[in-house]
Amino acid sequence: MSTWPQFPIIYEIGVVVWLHELSVRYGQPVTLGSIPPAELDALAEWGFDAVWLMGVWERSAKSVQIAQAHPGLQDDFRRALPDLKPEDVAGSPYAVHRYVVDVRFGGAEGLATLREALAQRGMRLVLDFVPNHVAVDHPWTVTHPEYLIQGIETDLSNAPDAFFVVEAEGRRLIYAHGRDPFFPPWTDTAQLNAASAATRNVVVETLRAIGRQCDGVRCDMAMLTTNDIFSRTWRERGLAGDQPEFWSSIIPQVRAEHPDLLFIAEVYWDLEWALQQQGSITPTTSASTTACAPPTHARRGTTCMRRWPTRSGCCVSSKTTTSRAPPQPFGVQRSMAAAVLSFTVPGARLLHDGQLEGRTVKTPVQLGRRMVEPPRRSGARVLPQAARRSAAADLQGGRVAAAGRVLVLESEHDLRQPHRT
Fold first, then answer.
1. Strands 381-384 and 348-351
2. Which of 36, 2, 54 is nearest to 114 (CA)?
3. Residue-wise pLDDT tens digits, 237-250
4. Which residues contact 24 (CB under 8 A, 6 or more apart)?
5. Triad 306, 309, 312: Cα angle to 5°
6. For residues 127 and 210, is the Cβ–Cβ distance under 8 A?
7. What is the tens place of the pLDDT at every residue in 154-204?
8. Alpha-carbon torsion 223, 316, 7, 273, what sign?
9. Are 408 and 383 in contact (CB under 8 A)?
C-alpha cells in the first residue's frame, strides 16, 4: 500500500478470541484466510487505517502448561471468564514459540489472504514482535544458546523462579527468564541477550521476515532492550557495553528492505522521546486515558501534558492499565473525555478490541475465549469517520476535527450533567 498517513487510526484485534467468536457466529471453523467479507467491510466502515492482529505467531505449549498451573493467573482467568475450561487457555501471545503464523489460525497463506483483503478495503496490517524474550520452548534454547542470557547452577539454587533448565542433546543448559527491572520474571519466557551481536543479527533477520507479511510491527516492551534499561536489568551479568543503541542498529537494516514498514513501540516510564530518537520508532502511550482519570489515577497521566512536540510521533492509546476496561474506572463522562482527548492530541491513535462494543471486562491475553457481554451504548462511543479535514483540532457543534479525521461522539447521557455508573 501507499505510505502511511501521518496520524493513522489503528484497531487491535486479539486473533484467537476473534477467530473463536467468528467460528461460533457462522457455525463453522473460521481462519485468517476465510474471514467473512462482511466482517472486514464492517471494520472498514469505521475508517481504520490499520488492523493490529495481536497474537498470530505460534503459541508455546509450555506457556499453556505454565498458565494452567499458575494460581494467580487462574484467578485472573476465572474473574474474566467464570465458566473457564482448560481448553480456553491458549497460551501467551508474548511467549512466542516461533515467528511462524500458527497453523490453527490459517498459517502464512491465510494471513496473506487476509492482508490482501484488508488492503482492498484501504487498511494495513500490523503484527507483533517481542524483542526482549522468546518462549521457554523456543527452538533457540536448543540450537542457539548464544542468543540468550545463560546462567549457572548457583543461579538455579539462589533464584529458582528466575532461571530454568533445558536438557538437550546430552547438554544441561540454564537460561534466565525474561523480565524487566521492577517486576518478577515471566516464567514462560527466556531472556534474549540484547547486547549480543549474534542476537541483534537474528532480530534483524526475524523482523525482515515479519516485514514481508505486514505493513507495521508493534514491538512489545520495546524500552527493555535500550542500552540503559538492559544494562540496569542485567548489570550483574557484565552486559553493559559501548555498543550502539539496540533500535538504532536494528531499524535501519530492516528498513533497507522494507522502507515503509511502521515500527510501533510499547513504552513505559516516560521513555517515549528516548525511543523516538532510536530509529523513527513510534511509541505508544496511554497517558490520554489516565489524564482524565479520577484524582487517585490522575498523577500517572501528567506526562501527557509534557513535551507536546514529542506527542506528534506517538501512538496514543485510550486503553486503561487496570484489570477493568473503560468506563468502569473512570465513569461515563471521564471515559468520553479520555476518548475525545485520545483523538485530538497529535499522533497516531490506537483503539483496542472490545472498546467499540463498550465491553467492561478485560480478557487476559492467554485466553482463547471471552465472556459474553451485551453491547453497551451508555458509555463513550467514538466513531472515526473516513472524511478528511484540514483543521488540526477543534471542537464545534458536537464534532471533533482532529488532525484530518472527523469524529462523531455519541452518548445517551447529557455530558453536562452528573451521571452515576
1. unpaired
2. 36
3. 756 557 889 999 99
4. none
5. 110
6. yes
7. 999 999 999 999 998 888 999 999 999 888 999 999 999 999 999 999 999
8. negative
9. yes
- Grid coordinates of 113: 489472504
Domains and CATH numbers, the chain: 9-133+193-379 (3.20.20.80)
How far is it, in rounded angstroms, from Cα 2 to Cα 215?
Answer: 10
- CA angle (158 as vertex; 156, 161 as ends), nearest 5: 60
Contact at 8 Å (CB) between 93 and 54?
A: yes
Quick one: cell of 288? 490520554
What cell does 75 get?
484467578
Best CA proximity match to 30, nearest among 43, 40, 38, 21 = 21
Neighbours of 389 (CB within 10 A): 16
- DSSP H or E run through 338: helix 331-344
CA 42, CA 348: separation in Å to the nearest integer? 21
Which residue do the cell numbers 472524511 mark? 387
Name the E strands within 278-343.
282-285, 315-317
Q: Where do we find the cell 488492503?
A: 119
